[in-house]
Amino acid sequence: MASLLLLLLSVFARAAASAAFLVGEDADELKALRVSIANYAPVKAVLAGSLTIPCHITYLRPLPTSSTAGRRAVLGAPRVKWTFISEGQESEILVARGQKVKVSEGYRYRVSLPFYPASPTDATLVLSELRSNDSGIYRCDVQHGIEDGHDLVEVTVKGTQSRSLARPATETWTGSQACGTTGSWTQKTCTMCTATLRTSTVILTPKSAVSSPYCIRTTDASDQHPPGWP
């Protein structure tokens, strides 16, 4: 009798181990939905530009309905949540279920789901007015009934803000213009600076440009200062 019990326990233990192995290996295949971001490679975006991250929901098998599961039926659109992760810290971007969308304050007026919920399987995210601190990992989480899934992608925002964004006028440096003797200025210093404003163009001499609010000397590598200017 004892040997029979030991044999039964051994068989049961092996069966349990096999089941656990299958669950670990095939857990993803048992899910009813799958979430996938189209571009897995790091995405590069431009500062002050916009970013589109495609996120699609695929149903691998029919979800329970009222006729098959009664009170456990899955009704309505899936719940979509986008999260931003940077330096180990998570922050919520938005949460949407059907027509109800909650957007975090830091992303208000900058983020949208252009296709959801009209297309409940498309949770594509659009983020505009990109900032340097928008670089990080973006995760798309989807939940529908008891089923859920997620995918993520890394985004890098590059570029340098133009100083014109911080000033009402746009300053531009020009090259030599009809160099010769201009009044008391010699050929070496006759290069002029053109400050393009909203309504007019002001041409300044090197001397007057030093005190002019329209011409600014900066240390940006992108600025090409004409010869003869301070």
Distance from first to last alpha carbon: 102 Å
CATH topology of the largest domain: Immunoglobulin-like
| Run of helices and strands | HEEEEHEEEEEEEEEEH
> What is the CATH C-level name of the largest domain?
Mainly Beta
Structural class: alpha+beta
Compact summary:
InterPro entries: Hyaluronan_bind_Proteoglycan, Ig-like_dom, Ig-like_dom_sf, Ig-like_fold, Ig_sub, Ig_V-set. Its main location: secreted. 17% of the residues lie in helices and 33% in strands.
Tell me what you see in this structure.
One of its GO terms (molecular function) is hyaluronic acid binding. This is Ig-like domain-containing protein. Residues 1-19 form the signal peptide. By secondary structure, this protein is an alpha+beta fold. The chain has 2 domains: 31-62 and 75-158, Immunoglobulin-like; 163-211, no CATH class. Helices cover 17% and strands 33% of the residues. It contains 3 helices and 14 strands. It has helices at 2-30, 66-69, 206-211; strands at 33-37, 43-46, 51-53, 55-59, 79-86, 89-97, 100-103, 111-112, 125-127, 136-144, 147-158, 170-173, 193-196, 201-204. The strands form 4 sheets. A 6-stranded mixed sheet has the order 2-11-10-5-6-7, with no helix packed on it. It is globular, with a radius of gyration of 31 Å. The model is unreliable at 5-9, 17-25 and 162-230 (pLDDT under 50).
